[in-house]
Amino acid sequence: MIKTLRMILGGTCLLVMAGLAQAADKPNDAQIAHIAYTAGVIDIDAAKQAIKTSKTKLVVDFAKDMLRDHEAVNKQALDLVKKLKVTPEDNPTSQALTKAAEAEREKLAKLQGAAFDKAYIINEVAFHKQVDDALKTVLIPSATNPELKSLLETGLKIFEGHEQHAEMVAAEMK
Amino acid sequence: MMAKHISLIAGVFALASSVLPAHARTIQVTVTGMAFSPASVTASVGDTIEWVNKDPFAHTATVKGAWEVMLPVGKSASKVIKKSGMVDYYCRFHPNMKGRITVTP
Lengths: 174, 105
Ligand SMILES: [Cu+2]
Description:
The complex is a heterodimer of chains A (174) and B (105).
Chain A: H1 2-23, H2 29-53, H3 57-84, H4 92-109, H5 113-142, H6 146-173
Helix pairs in contact in A: 1-4, 1-5, 2-3, 2-4, 2-5, 3-6, 5-6
Chain B: H1 2-19, E1 26-32, E2 35-37, E3 40-44, E4 48-53, E5 59-63, E6 67-71, E7 76-80, E8 85-90, E9 98-104
Parallel strand pairs in B: 1-4, 3-9
Antiparallel strand pairs in B: 1-2, 4-7, 5-6, 8-9
The complex binds copper (II) ion.
């Protein structure tokens, strides 16, 4: 079960990395804003699914933490793009992220109980790790506006924190 | 008689001040940009640590298995330090946020 999950996750990762590679000839600030915002939306949707599906307090509480933080980051992102008069621009990376998230959501929708909890948390660890890598290697170095760069740096700390939080929850579930 | 009285009173004061902490302080730690600042503080037993959360995110100051202070957005919360020693705490929501309190007796 876990093995299959890992394989699927591995596939998801590749897909997104391909998206990032396409955009790697430096995404512009409007695309970067779109990617960061999309990553937030994906985690918010996953959290909503977990809050609805899971019956485990530990997991539901974690999902609520994700929902609260990512809504706060995305609100900051919206305020910033408005202030900078930048219109977030859709791009292959955002599309790959969204596509992978839809596949994950459909997969999770077929699970319940402990199987759902486990799959959700494992994906949270993997997803946050993947976004951390994207922020560190592509998004932050490519951002030209200093305020956008600074927001992405805060975003990176949040995502890294969530990754560790998810790892702790995974350890507690065993 | 009078002198005796005075020395008695002085004695009582001396006793009181040796028992109660001389001047309990409040040490402020600001929470901003996903970090505790300063990350490391020194306190004495009886001092209060006050965390002021200036982030748009909720945080905690947590010592695993011992205590937890919730730090909602825009709020302050505090804790009186009762034991000497070194205390490492972290944010339960973002375990990459770490702080330390060194408590002298
Ligand atoms: Cu925190």
